[in-house]
């Protein structure tokens, strides 16, 4: 009889622990997002179409409200990528926003040289991303920095990836 009482007591404790663990729900982690250039296309008018990849490393969806990123190509200031993409990116996922961009003359020349020579081109992004995590207040993530390179895409004139 005493063994049954202990068994019931242990079962009751396990049920309470299991219910308590389920009540807390999944962890809601908000991490700094990231941005990088997925593709840069030189348009017929000389401006650029920049496919900016917005990466959400959080465990919850995040709406990307605005970006303001200084762009430098091959050591030349190209200007500021500024847009209001208004896209929601799922947890630990990414999406692309197209930004039409008017680059500086020095940046245009650097990209033209890279495309003509078939060589890679370094770039840097520095600035902020304004985003709203799911069911939370809007935040400005100020320390967005990326250093990488783009190369001409074979068979696609005027395109760098």
From TrEMBL:
<protein>
    <recommendedName>
        <fullName>Late embryogenesis abundant protein</fullName>
    </recommendedName>
</protein>
């Amino acid at each position: 009889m005493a063994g049954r009482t202990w068994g019931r007591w242990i079962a009751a404790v396990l049920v309470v622990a299991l219910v308590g663990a389920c009540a807390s729900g999944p962890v809601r982690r908000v991490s700094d997002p990231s941005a990088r250039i997925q593709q840069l296309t030189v348009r017929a008018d000389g401006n650029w179409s920049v496919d900016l990849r917005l990466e959400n490393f959080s465990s919850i969806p995040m709406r990307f409200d605005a970006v303001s990123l200084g762009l430098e190509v091959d050591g030349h200031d190209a200007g500021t990528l500024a847009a209001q993409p208004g896209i929601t990116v799922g947890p630990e996922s990414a999406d692309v926003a197209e930004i039409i961009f008017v680059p500086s003359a020095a940046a245009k020349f650097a990209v033209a040289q890279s495309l003509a020579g078939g060589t890679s081109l370094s770039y840097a992004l520095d600035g902020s991303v304004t985003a709203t995590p799911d069911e939370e207040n809007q935040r400005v993530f100020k320390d967005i920095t990326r250093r990488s390179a783009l190369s001409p895409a074979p068979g696609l004139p005027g395109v760098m990836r």
